Task: inverse folding
């Protein structure tokens, strides 16, 4: 049994590190471990230690020379190789201890960047498996009964539960720093996709291929308007590339005047390769909640940026349905590549749109209507072309995804004399009514347009067909509950910092201090002390009686089994005392009779109403021991 628990512990450690492993590692280990178990239980032939050590050293040197992995990734593979070497050699007690130690080290390394709820549950399961396996390993040196194995199992489970409670206690009450320990070491892992200041028309489609969660947004009530989660603002276009070249004018304080009540959001942003903080259009104020010590910039284009988001960030943001008026350099938002300008003018002229002939709102609607009708069509498969992607889209294929429609409309608005810019962010999201929050995934990545109408920036989306958010019916209730638990994990566990600890202590103080005092009862102190002493003595007597019965029921019976074993009599763990006497009868009838006599007395105490007589059982055990000594 200890061997099975050791295999299970190593497998759990591998699951904890699976995000950092190559795709072939887990399937390979899934094949290797059953073979190793068959080798240990049936084949009984093992690889020599010198060969295993040589293979481990060769594998490590190969990784160091050929691999470009980071040092922590190399450490993970090093621990895996050492563990596998143990499984292919002959596993003794000390080897099982080493397997547990190496598996724990593997989990500790993974914990440097793995903060998911799944990892926390896996760590609790690993604690139970390790403590149970080690308990059975220590008990494997003696011949124990089946009932005793159950007791060991229960003891290990209670020990694991106690360990978890102690860990929770230290987590809640140990003094915490206002800053994250690993904040400056870059040990956290980031997502593989994300918006950046320089992006091509194809990159946003690559973001949508990722189905992982981008961020969660807790709100007071479900929105009754389209959801556009504004992120980065692009101002300069050149040959299929959008860039943010405008030097940001940092705004010390955004105007909070909003014609309507601002929409409050608490956003939990997942790590990604970028530095933009997303919010519902249009954000007018923002406050970082976690991590402590981070600063953010408020840019003149109403975008928020911080340092590279290599860990989860939470913040409160207020958004206004209508953007306030802020001055801007008009020239950069009228920029059009020289090789496209003439073609774009011809495109507008053929459709009756002349620069300056209509107000900006009319121009924007006219251009949008062009893209809502054939031959323009939304598709995720765009043929490759050596020419500019926007030229190919407008004059050749008429097919593309949201980046093509939004980019073409931005350049057409600029050609018509209307300042415009491209906005990168997300659209829609899944509403989770359990926790009152939206789930926005990477596949919801989207681009749209903002144009200047002379007084304010107005959003407009020219894409005729886009990937809208799933309805609530498309997500199962189990999935919603599971994601709600993950959100609670992020809020109460990962974001449990010094300020939350202070709030927790204040809540405890209010609970225990502000309670009204109960009226004091007048008690006779002497009588109270006397009754308490009598009650305490009765409890002690009952406990001692129970412990005495258990001592008689288990200890003396186990002593008899161990005594017989020391004289060469071996029995199966499931054999009772009478079965042992029956097997001994052909060899020694007198010894069998003595064991039978002992067994009947023991059974009467164990299952009958006879009071335990410790002295009687000990005398019978001494007779058995005397008989065995004389016979020897």
Result:
């Amino acid at each position: 049994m200890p061997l099975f628990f050791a295999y299970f512990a190593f497998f759990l450690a591998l699951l904890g590190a699976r995000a950092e492993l190559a795709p072939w590692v887990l399937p390979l280990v899934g094949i290797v471990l059953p073979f190793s178990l068959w080798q240990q239980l049936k084949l009984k032939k093992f690889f020599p230690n010198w060969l295993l050590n040589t293979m481990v050293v060769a594998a490590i040197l190969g990784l160091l020379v050929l691999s470009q992995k980071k040092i922590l990734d190399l450490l993970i593979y090093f621990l895996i190789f050492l563990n596998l070497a143990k499984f292919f050699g002959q596993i003794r007690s000390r080897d099982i201890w080493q397997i547990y130690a190496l598996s724990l080290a593997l989990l500790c390394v993974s914990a440097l960047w793995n903060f998911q709820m799944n990892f926390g549950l896996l760590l609790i399961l690993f604690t139970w498996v390790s403590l149970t396996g080690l308990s059975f390993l220590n008990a494997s040196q003696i011949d124990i009964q089946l009932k005793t194995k159950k007791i060991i199992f229960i003891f290990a489970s209670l020990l694991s539960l106690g360990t978890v409670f102690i860990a929770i206690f230290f987590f809640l009450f140990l003094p915490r720093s206002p800053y994250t320990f690993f904040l400056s070491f870059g040990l956290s892992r980031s997502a593989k996709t994300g918006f950046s200041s320089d992006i091509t028309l194809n990159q946003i489609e690559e973001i949508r291929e990722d189905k992982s969660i981008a961020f969660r947004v807790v709100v007071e009530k479900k929105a009754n308007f389209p959801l556009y989660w504004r992120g980065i603002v692009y101002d300069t276009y050149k040959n299929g590339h959008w860039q943010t070249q405008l030097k940001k004018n940092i705004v010390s304080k955004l105007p909070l005047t909003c014609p309507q009540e601002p929409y409050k959001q608490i956003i939990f942003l997942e790590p990604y390769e970028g530095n933009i903080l997303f919010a519902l259009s249009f954000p007018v104020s923002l406050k970082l909640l976690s991590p402590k010590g981070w600063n953010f910039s408020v840019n003149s284009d109403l975008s928020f940026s911080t340092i590279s988001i290599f860990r989860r960030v939470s913040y409160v943001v207020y958004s206004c349905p209508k953007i306030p008026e802020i001055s801007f350099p008009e020239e950069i938002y009228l920029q059009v590549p020289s090789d496209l300008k003439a073609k774009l003018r011809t495109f507008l002229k053929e459709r009756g749109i002349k620069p300056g002939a209509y107000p900006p709102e009319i121009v924007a609607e006219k251009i949008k209507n062009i893209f809502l009708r054939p031959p323009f069509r939304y598709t995720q498969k765009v043929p490759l072309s050596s020419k500019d992607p926007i030229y190919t889209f407008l004059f050749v294929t008429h097919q593309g995804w949201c980046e093509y429609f939004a980019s073409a409309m931005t350049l057409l608005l600029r050609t018509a004399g209307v300042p415009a810019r491209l906005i990168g962010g997300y659209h829609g999201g899944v509403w989770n009514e359990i926790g009152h929050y939206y789930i926005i995934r990477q596949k919801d990545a989207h681009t749209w347009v903002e144009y200047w109408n002379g007084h304010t920036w107005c959003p407009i989306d020219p894409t005729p067909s886009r990937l809208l958010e799933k309805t609530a019916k498309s997500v199962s209730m189990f999935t919603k509950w599971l994601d709600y638990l993950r959100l609670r994990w992020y809020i109460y566990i990962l974001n449990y910092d010094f300020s939350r600890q202070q709030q927790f202590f204040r809540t405890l103080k209010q609970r225990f201090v502000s309670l009204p005092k109960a009226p004091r009862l007048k008690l006779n102190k002497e009588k109270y002390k006397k009754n308490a002493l009598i009650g305490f003595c009765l409890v002690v007597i009952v406990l001692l009686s129970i412990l005495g019965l258990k001592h008689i029921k288990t200890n003396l019976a186990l002593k008899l089994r161990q005594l017989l074993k020391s004289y060469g009599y071996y029995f199966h763990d499931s054999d009772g005392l009478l079965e042992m006497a029956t097997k001994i009868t052909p060899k020694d009838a007198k010894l069998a009779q003595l064991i039978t006599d002992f067994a009947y007395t023991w059974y009467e105490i164990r299952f009958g109403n006879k009071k335990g007589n410790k002295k009687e059982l000990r005398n019978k055990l001494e007779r058995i021991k005397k008989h065995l000594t004389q016979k020897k």
